[in-house]
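On clarity, I found the account of how folds are encoded harder to follow than it need be. Since the whole study asks how a given chain folds, the encoding of that fold should be made plain. For the editor and my fellow referees, an illustration may be useful. An entry of this sort, consisting of the sequence and the corresponding backbone structure tokens, reads as follows:

:::
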Amino acid sequence: MTRFCPHYPPPAARRPSVWRMFFSKRRSWLDALYERSYSMKMGEVQLPGLALYMVNEPELVRRVMGEASLTEFPKHPALGEALRPLLGDSIFTTNGSTWKRQRALMEPAFEAARVKHVYGRMREAADAMSRRLAALPDGQVHDLEVEMTHVTADIILRTILSVPLDGDTARRIFEAFARYQALAPRLMLPSFFGLRWLRPWWEVRRSQSAAREIRALLVTLIQPRFDAAQAGGDGHDDILGSLLRTRDPVTGQGFAFEELVDQVAMLFLAGHETSASALSWSLHLLAHCPDIQDRLHAESLTHLDPGSDDPGALRDLPLARNVFREALRLFPPVGFLARQCTHAQRMRDKDVASGSTVVVSPWLIQRHRQLWARPDEFDPDRYEREDPGDQPSAKESLRRAYLPFGMGPRVCIGAAFAQQEAALLLATLARHVRLSPVPGAEPEPVGRLTIRAEHGIRLQVHQRPPLATVSGAAAA
């Protein structure tokens, strides 16, 4: 099997100065890391007005992200401040009793039965992706990051709102989201460090304008259905339909209209941006490993029924699932999770004051030198075998040091949705095309809103022979 270690920003040999660390983070969170970041159990940075602690030790991670996190380590308020113009008071930005109520109301929309029910709409978007790729000349260089962003946004629109991306309103939402996402990281970091005055006013205005546009467009799609539901029936069986029907078991109340817009905006942003990131890196990894890519092609031909609306068609795609799992390990979409400590406590040998920032980093933990064997190597087969030379074992690492969807009560509500979507898209793509790297176009990971490639992921797209031709050759 190919042993491929993908490029990532080389860490500095020594810890940078505090101010160099801050200014390097303005470009990418990954630029502030240094070699010991990948082996330490807990780190500390003291900035003027801010104490920040990086937690890598699995036991401490569970303490920060576990059940006590709801009261002792809530989400950092800077995240809410930066994203609230778009996401409002959604489950991404709220804490405490408000978050608990919202999460309980949203759970039915993401139960296993509901995720299975929207599979047919995922398949329609996957088929549309296949047609776009089939239209490319053989060997065409194509930005697969743009393609993955398109197809995941299409899936979100189809499964939440029953609207494909080819409509005018849907396309305007997609384009406004792209503008908003480009600005959000530059505005978030100064707020995170208590330096709101460093945010360029013109970028603040552009970000707020994009947020208003997105929300106005969502209102045009949600308002008629909200009114229909209030009048006695919505008639749609998608995720929004589930959110319109759900009721608090104590009060009997559902989502208010503005609250519903908040949740749909959050689902669109989180649902397509994180999946697009992980799928783009999956394709980069596959392009460098033709043997794994060919195995995935064979798995798809044998086990994926492209005409079925039954998600059971994905049951026999272990390689597709493991490729995605390994891409999530190496390139977790959300590389850094910020929490705020609500009361003074001792963590390892450090006194963590109330108000301090505690960061759990899936990027560091999933590449940690003591927590994973061959941490920088792409190896989707590590999850299916027991290699006696691997210490720790993959099973142990998965249990202690794998958290691309977070952990504890605030674990990503769409984790099952994302994994079903990824297996379908990877198998569909491998069925029809073969990817190869473009010399000199190595993608550079940057940590912003999610971990993306600075200049996209450009790959050569080769058309595989039509399936009828393959079948005929096999029969001969």
Notes: Residues 18-475 form a domain with the Cytochrome p450 fold (CATH 1.10.630.10). DSSP finds 18 helices and eleven strands in the chain.
